[in-house]
Amino acid sequence: MQKINDSTGEEPLLAKVAEAKTASLELASVPSDTKNRALMRAAESILSKREALIAANKKDLDAAKTLLEQGKLSKSLVARLKLDDSKIDEISRMVDSVAALEDPVGKIAYSIKMDENLDLFKLTVPFGVVATVFEARPDALPQIAALCIKSGNAVILKGGSEAKESNRAIHSIIAEALIREGLPKGCTQLVEDREAVRKLLKMDGLIDLVIPRGSNEFVKYIQDNTRIPVLGHSAGICHIFVDRKADPVKAIEICNDARVQYPAACNAMKVLLIDSNAAPQLLPRIAARLTKSGVRLKCCPRAKAILESNGIAAEGASERDWETEYLELILPVKVVDGLDEAIAHINRYGSRHTDSILTEDSASAKKFLRMVDSSTVIHNASTRFSDGYRYGLGAEVGISTNKVHSRGPVGLEGLVTTKFILLGAGQKVGDYVGDDAKPFLHRRSGLEINGRY
User: Fold this and answer.
1) Which of the ends of the chain has fewer CB neighbours closer than 10 A, N or C?
2) Rounded CA gap, 447 and 110, in Å?
């Protein structure tokens, strides 16, 4: 397998980032068809080289299992590391799906005729160079790389050290495919050095956007140590509130799916809230389903008393449990006195990620959807739906809890910015000021740029 710009080479970090900057200028004007062909070739190559990928991943898994035995890694992290035939097929489909999406570059967001032959356009354009620091999960690298390339951005990829061998193999396959289809050399760069993050954060003259994926503490560290704009992916302290008018069957199955289907996912339910009017009858049924699935319940005093009176074991919860993102099968449970208390709890302790209400009462649902201040709010469905691929974005570089630029799962539209283009024919500002100033037309008329850019 050919090695292309991986971090085992001797090229200094600054040279890699400078090469990415040069590549980004060319990539910004690469036609959609070329980008699509490159991504489709990458998807095909991932399938054809699955044996090499699995072999590389086995090295990571073997090292991770040793660290697990030593108590230095969690089971959930080891589970996220694994690549098998099914996961490789999924990665290939994801890259293919990004190729099939509409190109977000060059869209006219705004146009106005300022005067005859003086036309203003606001167009979507790539950021330039995107630096991403992400968790030890092999499928994160191809997701991020595919989205950045499709949106015309060069990308610096810094993955978790636990997935080092997997990341090297995947990046080599993708980079080779992109270059073979005519994309500029260096448009994807893989770095591994632990010190690289600190150095990247100081390269505000070369890097245009930083996207960290990790804990609240890690994202805050990134934000506090760079002048580069940061698109922050916060922790996933996601709630489900079971209202007094929830359908019991829906509630039982949705709660189990949200906590159990992928416990370590950022969009998994991390706290269960239940209305005090529903709790005596419904909480034991929900808890029985969860405990059967292996979930440990950490309960407020009222929830604990209800479960113990029904013969269901439960631990006590502390204040700290409401703000802890458990990545294993642990679930804090709290009984609340109605919708308003549930909303207040979520807005106080949540991470503004994803929160859901289970109810058959439309008024309660509407109030929850309006009042909960999160990037995704859901009615009668699992929090696990909060995902770029499931939202039809092709994939995601992360889930942003920011309120500026992009919020929620960040796909292609979150990876472009805008610039104004003014097309004139010799006009001067002096003609539009003073006693005999010409008036502006300022006419919105759906102008087309027609190849002039």
Assistant:
1) C
2) 9
Within 10 A of 201 (CB to CB), how many other CB atoms are there? 22
Tokens (6 digits) for 414: 């979150």
Q: What is the pTM of this model?
A: 0.80
CATH 3.40.605.10 in the chain, residues?
13-104+127-213+411-415
pLDDT tens for each residue of 357-401: 999 999 999 999 999 999 999 999 999 999 887 888 767 787 888
From the number of C-beta atoms within 10 Å of its C-beta (0-12, 13-18, 19+), residue 316 rates as: exposed
For the chain, report the end-to-end CA distance as a whole number of angstroms: 40
Which helix or strand (DSSP H or E) is residue 123 part of?
strand 118-126
Where do the CATH 3.40.309.10 domains begin and end in the chain? 238-388
pLDDT digits (tens, 9 = 90+) for 348-357: 999 999 999 9
Q: How far is CA 310 from CA 56, 289, 295, 445, in A?
A: 49, 13, 17, 68
SS3 of residue 398 by DSSP: strand
Hey, what's the torsion of the CAs at 262, 265, 267, 271, to 10 degrees?
Answer: 80
The amino acid sitting at 92 is S
Q: Which helix (H) or strand (E) holds 271?
A: strand 269-275
CATH second-level architecture of 13-104+127-213+411-415?
3-Layer(aba) Sandwich (3.40)
Q: What are phi and psi of 437, to 5 degrees?
A: -65, 135
Separation CA 337–CA 440 (nearest Å):
59
- pLDDT digits 0-9 by tens, 40-76: 999 999 999 999 999 999 999 999 999 989 988 888 7
Calculate the CA 358 to chain-centre distance.
25
**Which CATH class name applies to 238-388?**
alpha beta
- Angle (CA) 102-170-149 rounded to 5° is 25
Q: Please name the helix (run of DSSP H) or strand (run of DSSP E) that holds residue 221, with its range, or none.
A: helix 216-224
Is the pLDDT at 301 greater than 80? The verdict is yes
